[in-house]
Amino acid sequence: MAADSSKPSVLIFGGLNTCSRALAAFLVPIDGEPLVAYLRIVDKYSVHPATTYIGPDFAQVLKKPEVEYRQANLTVAATIESAFAPPEDKSDFDYVFDFTGEVRSDRGEMIQIGNTFAVARLLGLEAAKRKVKAFVRIQQPFYETSSKHPASEKEDIKPVETMGIWWHETLRTLASIENLNLVILRIGFVYGPYVDFGNIISAITVASVYGYLQKPMKSMWSPGKNPTNTVHIDDVAGGAWACAKWIANVGRKAANEAAGVPIPFHNDKSKVSEVEGIIPYDQKPAAPVFNLVDDSKTTLVSTGKTVSSFFGTTFEFFNVIETTVFKLMDDLEDINEHHVEGWTEMLVKSDPPITNTPISAYMDKYTLEKHVVGFDNSKIKELVGYKLLRPEFNHENIKEIVDKWKDQKLWPNVVKA
Ligand SMILES: *[C@@H]1O[C@H](CO)[C@@H](O)[C@H](O)[C@H]1NC(C)=O
Description:
eight-stranded mixed β-sheet, 40% helix, globular, binds 2-acetamido-2-deoxy-beta-D-glucopyranose, NAD(P)-bd_dom_sf, NAD(P)-binding protein
């Protein structure tokens, strides 16, 4: 089949461990017409053999004639430059999806600067130089918003931890690149089939353990209106695609007029002179930003109830004394001991036993901490005309996720201890 010039050529950078496999499957479906003329995915992982979990769908997508995978070290400018060069018989890349960035909160500041900030900056600079029609940056929900109302894109919300600070700094630098056809897509907590990172799969896994043990799942955080808004991975893909088409149509200037918001400084001022590429702290470059969360208005309590009831147990809160003890227990291993042991037992007792799975019941510091992330999703619906594919986080979605893991023999088939 000849390349279809009416369809864009697309580059996806990073995110093999987060959201880019789903985007690739959305752009080049296993059964159906591709939305793109050509797709190149570039990340640090190897896919043959896979050095990160890639799932069965993505393995199929990689076999498609329109799809190329390139393993590359994105911290090297020359590597990025060559990744933007189209194959000889193909036209220039039209859309770029920047799904890069370190999502592990236990990685230090140097890693965040080198793998999150610096990589995205190089991508943005190269994309602007090549005048790509769309550059969509995924922003993970490493923020704290007010618990009183969902944050609009205009609100100045606080990035959390070192990870959040550098993910946010990345947005300022990208926003400052003139003529970059940038859209920032600020997502909620992602869940979906074959998603093995983030707080939601953690909650689902731990809930399954308490269901198995027939004990209530308990939270360390008092019941309050703590939003922890969610988004299905299909909507991350669909939303990113919608945003790319939108800015490709209008360009950065008009996009900024319609949807631009200033991105304020939230870093340590000393970093400005220490780290190459940070813009002065008193500048607030504007860029089009869209929140993307589902309509469930998920909170800590609603997530807890949805996941625990799915596995036939309840969601409760520790009493004050227990909570105090937990907060004193600085050792993550102690806090995790109970459900990690339970999960291991489930894996061993599964028929046949499961010896290797990317899913862990271990909750890291970030997952255990209290999060308040509530986003207003009306802007992307109104301006971009985006319609959510999965508006609700519910049992049906959890069932789909767990069933798919079970099909892969990566989720135990035991029910009760
Ligand atoms: C990627 O390149 C950087 C800069 O040359 C180097 O420090 C780093 O070790 C490389 N990473 C890998 C995984 O090869």
